[in-house]
Design brief:
The protein has 252 residues and is an alpha+beta fold. It is built from four helices and eight strands; from the N terminus they run ααββββαβαβββ. The protein is globular and about 85 Å long.
């Protein structure tokens, strides 16, 4: 009888403590994801700074040679530097790299996303350089990759950025300008889209439609979003947060 009483008490205690333990684990994992995003946002600030930035790969080439020219860069080039792909490839004897690699390197990873990330040589992020879609953690603001103003006037679908992005080009506060967020790679795959870029429906350009919008609500139904100024917010509805500059398009 005494053994049964002890077992019953232990079972009750476990039942009471398990939800709290699960909540603590979930909070810790959310925080770890936020720290990962903050690290990427910090690296972006350094990358965008004309004084601090490291080598910007092919973007340093003149425009006539396919580069971005002096003091300009592409968002996708920054992403490739984070993953170490395309012109930043460091394994000349390998055509693919699986992350985490042997040294434990696993950039831009949310701890809630399982599975290996496979990096492919000679391919940019949006063209198969990073996959599979279901293993990709973060997507970058598609508005910083494509500009409706340039889209209307040129055949170049990529906009080049300058250090002025750190100030929102004087048009918006960098604290309201999303840089990257958790994405649902499975949903992106179902839409036949690359998960490395995302953004909600735009008001000024039919190019930005719902086919690019797949936020990953994996933190108790919420999404972590990092901004250009470096801070990270968590929300259940990133598309409709008041004051967030999803419609921003670079104009310089």
């Amino acid at each position: 009888m005494e053994v049964l009483v002890v077992v019953a008490i232990l079972a009750t205690l476990i039942a009471l403590l398990l939800p709290a333990a699960r909540g603590a684990i979930s909070t810790a994992r959310t925080f770890k994801c936020q720290m990962s995003q903050r690290s990427v946002a910090f690296d972006f600030q350094v990358w965008a700074d004309d004084t601090l930035h490291p080598a910007r790969g092919d973007d340093e080439l003149p425009v006539a040679q396919g580069g971005a020219g002096r003091n300009r860069f592409r968002l996708e080039t920054f992403m490739e530097s984070q993953y170490g792909i395309d012109e930043f490839w460091s394994e000349p004897n390998l055509n693919t790299i699986r992350l985490p690699d042997r040294s434990g390197r696993d950039p831009m990873r949310c701890v809630e996303v399982p599975g290996e990330v496979v990096l492919t040589r000679f391919a940019p992020c949006s063209q198969g350089g990073v996959g599979p879609a279901t293993s990709v953690s973060y997507g970058f603001n598609i508005r910083l990759q494509w500009s409706d103003r340039l889209y209307q006037n040129t055949n170049n679908f990529q906009v080049t950025l300058t250090s002025a992005v750190l100030e929102g080009y004087g048009e918006v506060s960098p604290a309201t300008l999303p840089l990257l967020l958790d994405v649902d790679g499975r949903k992106a795959q179902e839409m036949d889209r690359s998960p490395v870029f995302t953004g909600p429906l735009g008001n000024s350009d039919p190019m930005f439609y719902d086919g690019w919008w797949f936020p990953g609500k994996r933190h108790a139904g919420k999404v972590n979003v990092a901004f250009v100024d470096g801070h990270v917010s968590t929300t259940p509805d990133p598309e409709h947060e008041a004051g967030w500059s999803w419609d921003f398009a670079p104009s310089h």
